[in-house]
Amino acid sequence: MTIEHAYREVLVLTQAMREAANAQHWEELTQLEQQRSTRVASLSSPPLEADQVKRIAEIIDEIERESREILEHVQVWQKHVRILLRLDRPTAQP
Questions:
Q1: Domains of the chain
Q2: Which residue has the higher pLDDT, 87 or 22?
Q3: Helices (H), ranges, 23-92
Q4: CA-to-CA distance for 68 and 60, rounded, in angstroms?
Q5: Could you tell me the pLDDT band of residue 32, with boundaries at 50, 70 and 90?
């Protein structure tokens, strides 16, 4: 497997994470993130040709864009959860 293919696998996992976050499938998102972390940890850095560097840089840029979108979904969800937790608190009796 080429290093470029390995980065493309990370991108596919990141895209699946974005879809899970968008659908609010948090357990699936967590599982995908674990898979992606394992894949990233196994990446090596062999010597690369200039064209490979360019293609891999483009893949990494896309991974970063997807990751930002995932973060936005998660932050919105966290905000909603905080609001719900505040609403669930019992009110103080005078």
A1: 3-87 (1.20.58.380)
A2: 22
A3: 26-41, 50-87
A4: 12
A5: very high
Long-range contacts of 61-69 (CB under 8 A, 24+ apart): 62/11, 62/14, 63/7, 63/10, 63/11, 63/14, 66/11, 66/14, 66/15, 66/17, 66/18, 67/14, 69/18, 69/21
Token pair belonging to 19: 């879809």
pLDDT tens column, 17-30? 999 999 999 999 99
Instruction: Tell me what pLDDT residue 66 has.
Output: 97
Cβ contact 52:3 at 8 Å: yes
Q: Say how far apart CA 32 and CA 13 lie, in whole Å.
A: 6
